[in-house]
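Entry type: protein chain
Record version: 2
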Amino acid sequence: MIKFTKLAVILCFAATALTAKAQVIYNSRAAFDLAHPINYVIDFNGYTPGPFQYASVTAPTPYGDVLFVSPQGNVEFLGNGNIPFLGAGNLALYAFNGQPFTDSLTITLSANSFSFGTDVISPSTTVPEPYQFTIFSGSTVLAIVDSPSVSSAYTFIGYDSLTSPITSIKVQIANAVGSFEPTLDNFTVVPEPSTWLASGFALAAMVFVGRRRARIRG
């Protein structure tokens, strides 16, 4: 019982720590995954690759749907014929006909989302295009976050809002040279804090009950 109580205290402390900060920006998927051990990755691998285009894409997740829309055009999915470092069968989302310094991809998250992460790829093979993410809660801008990118590998960007839910994200290439179509892969969503804390308490209860039964048998 003492061990379970200690774990409960730790979880409560974690909940307090979450609400004490305003935001966290991640430049490493390993750090993001460590902070969010419960998450879901949208890998885009089940879609039809280009030249087929989607007017918009709604990706289901255990925590609610995520909508991807390209305001200037449609959404395509590119494989290693266009992005050589991608593995066989691996697809990335490509916001067709994006424009420089213009929000060219809008991502709408499910209700009560406080975190997201994604791998980004430069759409240009000659220029490491800089990305800009504008993060909204309703009509309020929570943050504008910049991320570098290269065409030969993933660059990761992740964000936690610990005050207001994230409702949408607008993505642009903040550069006037090269290609301007935001290109993402492995878009990652996280359950709302109360959900993963509840999961933590449930796991702690299961561990406690299992240990108690083991002691009774012994």
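Comment: The first strand starts at residue 23 and ends at 26.
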